[in-house]
TrEMBL record:
Cofactor: pyridoxal 5'-phosphate
Key words of the record: Aminotransferase, Pyridoxal phosphate, Transferase
Protein name according to UniProt: Aminotransferase class V
Gene Ontology process terms (BP): glycine biosynthetic process, by transamination of glyoxylate
A family per Pfam: Aminotran_5
Domain (Aminotransferase class V): residue spans on this chain: 11-328
Statement: the UniProt record of this protein carries the keyword Transferase: yes
Length: 384
């Protein structure tokens, strides 16, 4: 019997029925007074979610588009930047930076391991002439399930004084505490299909006063992604270009739902589902790629050793219509990733673990007693 497909990947994430209903409304003119009210409400709630009084703008792009905008608006060709690379997306920001003529200094870590904040400290302290203009960090590295120590790295950036910190929060915004104003983060990019609980198509960028000052002298060419245009329009409850009206309807409702739940409860829910997922994998003797102390609250990467990762993904999709994510680049075929980001509940976690156990039995896995994963996850959830 065909049922509702179940997305347990780090994006796109499940979309609540209320959001889907909102998106089904007839569109209205994006220059109308009624739509200006929608933009005004969305802008206020985006600032709430970002924990900032700074500007937050919405772009009709993916998370990559938001990050590209966050890079090109504040630098000039030849500017030196440090880029943290411990996964697919850190690698991508380095490639984008090079594409726009920046002088890129890569600080690497093995995929599955966190970036070392001390390597950033050493580079920044050595820069006595203040040639480093920016530090670009992926907070939650989606490809590996690692949460980097952004807070510590940011402290070293602040001690440097000159450099901006540019943050990829695509799978951390709305999933883990990210106090933008408290930490003094300059540019933070994110995407709608993650913690925002709506489909792909919108990117968001928060911008500090320090970043706007850098914007005034930045010379990388830009037009559609010129954040100055977005600020000017957003200040008037408008948009510089045609926005996805129905997606904005969905965002309006999703942010209302998030505000009703509250930030503390949102973060606690993500922590709980992460702990339950990881406890289940350990009980099933399925090795985890990222260490507990640096585990992303968006996605858990699992590296099975005696059963094929792609067979697990294929079987659970065929038998239960549950989508798990695979590995990327050299991890392709070696890991599978369970998303627990956005509109994901305790029931969803228990469902996917139960289906995974059945899948493992079907594939002949003998590494654990059937039911051990569900029991371990249930124990974590019962203690909440």
């Amino acid at each position: 019997m065909e049922g509702q497909p179940m997305l347990m990947i780090p994006g796109p994430t499940p979309v609540p029925e209320q959001v889907l209903r909102a998106m089904a409304k007839p569109p209205i003119g994006h220059r109308s007074g009624d739509f200006s009210k929608v933009i005004a409400e969305i802008t206020a709630n985006l600032k709430w979610l970002h924990q900032t009084q700074n500007d937050v703008v919405a772009l009709t792009v993916s998370g990559t588009g938001a990050m590209e905008a966050g890079i090109i608006n504040f630098f000039s060709p030849g500017d030196r930047v440090l880029v943290g690379d411990n996964g697919k997306f850190g690698e991508r920001w380095g490639l984008i930076s090079k594409a726009f003529g920046l002088n890129v200094d890569i600080i690497k870590a093995e995929w599955g391991k966190p970036l070392n904040p001390e390597e950033f400290r050493a580079k920044l302290e050595q820069d006595t002439e203040k040639q480093i203009k920016g530090v670009i960090i992926t907070h939650s590295e989606t490809s590996t399930g690692v949460l980097n120590d952004l807070e510590t790295i940011n402290k070293y950036v602040k001690a440097h004084g000159e450099a901006l910190i540019i943050v990829d929060a695509v799978t951390s915004l709305g999933a883990v505490n990210l106090p933008i104003d408290e930490w003094g983060l300059d540019v933070v990019g994110s995407g709608s299909q993650k913690g925002y609980m709506i489909p792909p198509g919108l990117g968001f960028v928060s911008i500090s006063p320090k970043a706007w000052k850098a914007y005034e002298t930045a010379t990388i060419p830009k037009f559609y992604l010129d954040l100055g245009k977005y600020k000017k329009a957003t200040d008037k409850d408008s948009s510089p270009f045609t926005p996805p009206v129905n997606l904005m309807y969905g965002l309006q409702v999703a942010l209302q739902m998030m505000k009703a739940e509250g930030l503390d409860k949102i973060f606690a829910r993500h922590q709980l589902t992460t702990k339950a997922t990881r406890a289940a994998m350990k009980a099933l003797n399925l090795p985890l790629l990222a260490p507990d102390e640096y585990a992303s609250t968006a996605v858990t990467a699992v590296m099975p050793t005696t059963v094929d990762a792609e067979k697990i993904r294929g079987t659970i999709k065929k038998q239960f219509d549950i989508s798990l994510a695979g590995g990327q680049d050299h991890l392709k075929g070696k890991i599978f990733r369970i998303g627990h980001l956005g509109f994901v509940s305790e029931r969803d976690i228990l469902t996917v673990i139960c289906a995974l156990e059945t899948t493992l039995v079907e594939l002949g896995y003998e590494g654990a007693t059937p039911g051990a994963g569900v029991a371990a996850a249930s124990q974590v959830l019962a203690q909440s």
